[in-house]
Write a structure and sequence with these properties.
This is Non-specific serine/threonine protein kinase. It is found in: Membrane. One of its GO terms (cellular component) is membrane. The protein is of the alpha/beta class. The radius of gyration is 29 Å and the shape is globular. The N terminus is likely disordered. Bound molecules: 2-acetamido-2-deoxy-beta-D-glucopyranose (12 copies). One 2-acetamido-2-deoxy-beta-D-glucopyranose binds next to loops.
């Protein structure tokens, strides 16, 4: 039996005799090395499906490792291991037999739990590696310098591990990886190096295969080389959360394939050029918490594929132009700029795909709420610190998906609805510091079991609590604002509140 099973491989080896002799290990030896590697790691969750699959391959000498879960072979050699998302744990150290698999081109151990492991320098022995994915897998310590020998890599993902990149830094690491298409080092601390070792290397702009660059939360420094924006295949550029990384947006050409651009929380400054409208494929533009100044370019309305527009917390001035043509936008995030007093009547009501609308501190002097009636997909309305007047219209109850309503610090007046009960998903309601008057009762909030934050303070309201509630109908609040609410006694329902405030 064993003879019959082995024969095809014997023949295969004869056929590819040249490659077989060039390799260090035979097919069986590779399977043994893989098996020994597998024995050093184990599955955390003994009940899961993944565990069954993983463990079913228990005795290598009886079976062909190429047939086992997540293993790919070519010409009798193990060229791929994909054990991603299997809840694996264990220690991979320098003597691991993994590093004997010299033909390995794909290694995917992402989404596991190797918290006791560092990445051994011996990884550099896997010189044929094209795709290396160790993201979300707990590896810690330093990224070994020997990584730079992996010159054939086309995708490298070490993101979301507690890793550090020491001297000589990013430049040394990437210099020889000229075939890179996909690079994600998000969460790797690159500040450990000194001087220019924490900056983004200029030569990245010459890596013409790059289509995905993600270096979020890397503690990068210095000026970002703008030429990188012009990489011909670049679709995804994500440099967010690097507050010491400075840079400017270049003039854009209409040959760009860029779809997603995240630069939030960086030191980028200067203007947003009109030529941004040349980015015909752009879907995500995330420029929050930078230092952009001047105006929102009028040409922005040409970016009709945008689903996400984030410009909050910059120094943008002038008027917000009509964005009526951005009909696919689901998230509009513009707060805390220096916009002039303007009106949004003409267009905001047409953006019917909006899920999240953030317009805080935007100098809005409109009676804007009636214009939201058709935006029935809204889950977040955040418009605090404006001069919005009028009352909350009854059409507002059309917005039954709302989770967050933040209208604090405005000029709103009139009665509050007798009932917010239509908002079954409501978690956050703050309407303090307005001019609401009349009475509002506890029963307006009974049954809103997801409500966590309720703040109606500093109005001309009187808050009355009835007593016919049951514990089951009370929301479990973590924040309640009732100051200046004309309370006539201590609200009895508070005795049944158990949550601690989570800031
Ligand atoms: C490497 O790990 C294996 C088991 O996982 C262990 O037997 C061996 O002693 C370790 N070697 C070193 C050098 O730590
Ligand atoms: C991984 O293990 C943890 C606990 O050990 C378990 O809660 C989780 O559901 C597991 N995940 C998978 C994908 O099996
Ligand atoms: C693998 O199979 C061989 C022969 O069939 C047997 O002698 C050996 O004990 C098995 N090893 C394991 C780990 O099950
Ligand atoms: C690794 O596996 C994950 C999950 O299956 C997948 O999303 C990712 O694209 C894979 N990485 C590579 C380099 O193939
Ligand atoms: C990069 O490649 C060059 C030429 O092949 C080699 O001399 C150099 O040592 C390599 N650099 C690194 C950091 O591996
Ligand atoms: C930014 O640079 C300053 C001065 O070098 C340093 O103190 C700070 O920790 C840096 N911040 C980040 C997020 O890297
Ligand atoms: C973009 O919009 C401007 C007007 O703001 C228009 O003149 C221009 O032709 C548009 N460009 C493209 C590429 O559609
Ligand atoms: C809501 O949509 C209807 C039908 O499309 C339209 O007639 C109405 O004017 C819209 N209301 C607002 C406030 O935009
Ligand atoms: C919104 O509410 C108003 C009044 O309550 C109603 O006339 C209108 O048909 C509703 N619109 C939608 C889109 O449900
Ligand atoms: C609320 O205030 C308005 C004037 O702003 C007033 O006309 C109305 O009578 C007040 N309502 C109550 C219930 O106090
Ligand atoms: C509480 O009592 C009032 C009138 O007495 C009634 O209208 C209301 O529906 C009651 N609320 C609940 C939650 O039972
Ligand atoms: C609410 O529950 C507490 C104990 O969990 C109980 O003492 C109290 O009587 C209940 N109150 C109401 C109104 O159901």
């Amino acid at each position: 039996m064993a003879f019959i099973v082995l024969r095809p491989f014997f023949l295969l080896c004869l056929l590819v005799l040249l490659t077989c002799t060039a390799s260090l290990l035979s097919h069986d030896e590779e399977c043994l090395a893989l098996f020994q590697f597998k024995q050093t790691i184990h599955h955390q969750n003994y009940d899961a499906d993944g565990f069954q699959k993983f463990e079913s391959w228990s005795n290598i000498s009886n079976s062909d490792c190429c047939l086992s879960d997540g293993v790919v072979c070519s010409k009798g050699h193990v060229i791929g291991i994909d054990w991603s998302g299997r809840n694996l744990t264990g220690v991979i150290n320098s003597s691991s037999t993994l590093f004997e698999l010299a033909h390995l081109q794909i290694l995917n151990l992402s989404m596991n739990n190797f918290v006791e492991s560092r990445i051994p320098p011996e990884i550099a022995r896997l010189k044929q590696l094209r795709h290396l994915d160790l993201s979300y897998s707990g590896f810690n310590g330093h990224i070994p310098n020997e990584f730079s020998h992996l010159m054939l890599l086309s995708s490298l993902d070490l993101s979301r591990n507690p890793l550090k990149l020491p001297n000589p830094g990013l430049e040394y690491l990437l210099k020889n990886m000229t075939s890179l298409e996909f690079l994600d080092l998000s969460g790797v601390d690159i500040s450990v190096g000194s001087g220019s070792f924490s900056s983004v290397p200029r030569f990245l702009a010459n890596f013409s295969s790059l289509r995905h660059i993600e270096l979020r939360d890397c503690q990068l420094r210095d000026e970002f080389p703008s030429a990188v924006f012009h990489l011909p295949k670049l679709k995804h550029l994500s440099m967010g959360n690097n507050s010491n990384l400075t840079g400017f947006l270049p003039e854009f050409h209409n040959t760009s394939l860029l779809e997603k651009r995240y630069l939030f929380s960086t030191g980028f400054a200067g203007i947003i050029p009109e030529s941004i409208s040349n980015l015909n494929h752009l879907k995500v533009l995330s420029l929050q918490i930078c230092h952009f100044s001047w105006h929102i370019p009028g040409s922005l309305h040409n970016l009709t594929h945008l689903t996400y527009l984030g410009l909050a917390e910059n120094e943008l001035a002038g008027l917000v132009p009509s964005l009526v043509s951005l009909s696919k936008v689901t998230i509009l995030d513009l707060p805390y700029n220096k916009f002039e007093k303007g009106s949004m009547y003409g267009w905001i009501n047409k953006l019917t795909n909006l899920n999240e609308l953030y317009l805080d501190s935007m100098n809005i002097h409109d009676e804007i709420l009636p214009y939201l009636a058709n935006l029935t997909k809204l889950s977040i309305v955040s418009m605090s610190q404006n001069f919005i007047y009028g009352s909350i219209p009854s059409s507002f109850t059309n917005l039954t998906q709302l989770i967050v309503i933040d209208l604090k610090i405005n000029q709103l007046q009139g009665q509050i609805f007798s009932s917010f009960l239509k908002f079954k998903s409501l978690e956050y309601l703050t309407i303090g510091y307005n001019k609401f008057n009349g009475t509002v009762g506890l029963e307006s909030f009974l049954g809103l079991n997801k409500l966590e934050v309720l703040s109606i303070d500093q109005n001309s309201l009187s808050f009355v609590t009835t007593s016919n509630y049951t514990n089951a109908t009370l929301p479990e609040l973590s924040l309640l604002g009732l100051s200046s609410c004309n309370l006539k006694g201590f609200p009895a329902f508070l005795r049944f509140q158990t949550k601690k405030w989570k800031p």
